[in-house]
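pinging the channel bc i need a second pair of eyes. not urgent but kinda urgent?? the chain im working w is below, pasted from the shared doc
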Amino acid sequence: MTEVARLRDSTQILLPESAIEGLQEEIASRFVVTVHAEQCRVRIIGSPVEIKDVSEFLTRNGVTVA
C-alpha cells in the first residue's frame, strides 16, 4: 500500500449512510471528527487517533468497519 493510501485510511472512515443512522450525533459530540454526507455515503474524517477511537466505538455498536 502506498504511503498516501495508508495515510488516507488512517484519517477517514467511509460507510453507507445507513450504517451510522442514530449514531451520527453521538459521534460528532464524543469525537473530534468531521462527518460529511456525500450522496448515499458518510465520510468520517479526523486524526489517526480519533479515527481509531471512532472505529472502536462503531464496532461496539454493531457497525462493521473495513
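so The beta strands are 12-16, 33-38, 41-46. and Residues 3-60 form one domain. — does that match what u expected or am i reading it wrong
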